[in-house]
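Dear colleague,

Thank you for sharing your sequence with our group. We've completed the structure prediction you requested, and as agreed, I am returning the results in plain text so they can be pasted directly into your records. Please verify that the sequence below matches your submission; if there's any discrepancy, let me know and we will rerun it promptly.
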Amino acid sequence: MSDDLDADTIAFAHRMFDRARDGATEELAGYVDAGLPVNLTNDKGDTLLILAAYHGHPETVAALLARGADHSRTNDRGQTALAAAVFRTNTEAVQALLDAGADPDHGTPSAVETARFFDLPDMLAALGRS
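Please find the predicted structure tokens below.
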């Protein structure tokens, strides 16, 4: 976030990242519908979508995707929302991301690499790999 934002704006942004982590789908979707940038990114490069995927909230993932969240964005470590959903073995979030066009080979590590590294055969199958 920019250094020129005031404390209230920064606090509000932190609350929105918490809503993504907590799976507060309706509240977060309402803020996005009212103008909150759907690809809001924190100081680690995590988007609302990446946080929702990592914390296992497929409904929030779907709502953000429906509002135009960029599934191809990576955080500062090169991780995608799809890789996060695979790591958390969240089949619903994985499917929502794939349906939106997320690339299983994008990111470092990619979703496929994540599934192989952590020996997640069900996730490899969900990604169409073995």
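Summary note from our side: The chain has one domain: 7-126.

Kind regards,
the structure core
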